[in-house]
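Researcher: We're teaching a course module on how sequence relates to structure. For the next exercise, students receive a sequence and then see the predicted structure as tokens, so they can try to spot secondary structure elements on their own. Here is the exercise chain.
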Amino acid sequence: MTWHLEQPLPIIAMGALLFAMLLGGLIKTGRRGLLGAMIAVVFATIGMLMLERIVVTPGEQIAATLQQLARDIQTNEPSLVFQHISATAEPLRNDAEMALERIEIHKVTVKSNLETEISANGEKATARFNASFDASAKSGLVNNQHAAWFFVVDFVKQQGRWLVTDYKRYDPLHRDSELAAHEM
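Model: And here is the predicted structure for the students to work with:
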């Protein structure tokens, strides 16, 4: 469970709640020992916030990988995109190469609904999220087309990096029924 290492808000909320409870106790009872506890809560909260900033969880690593992949896709440089694909995913590399030969990507946006599942051994992960992109066909038949998809992306950790091994995309409006049909 890494919730306390991924978001500062729960740390701040818990620190503020404890501080407020101790302050209420100090006001009500006048016990000076509570003042020391209040100071300890402030330092503990600051320490947890510093720890949250220092520790990068696998979920945060995957989020950073997806953001970098989005930026690299926008360059339309296959070599940059291939850096994010596992060498064992040759069909995926071929698909990416063919797509980049036909399409010029203008903008890619990974939405904020990212959910990650990390395997028990920490070597595989699955990310689920919405993304959108603006693209044009290099043939000139389609210009600045906008599309949005719900993605399920599989990762493997190789040499300390999260690399894509496979992905599936779904219509974001019908993703629940499509996911259910796919999992049957």
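Model: If you want an answer key for the exercise: The CA atoms of residues 62 and 162 lie 7 Å apart. The chain has seven helices and five strands.
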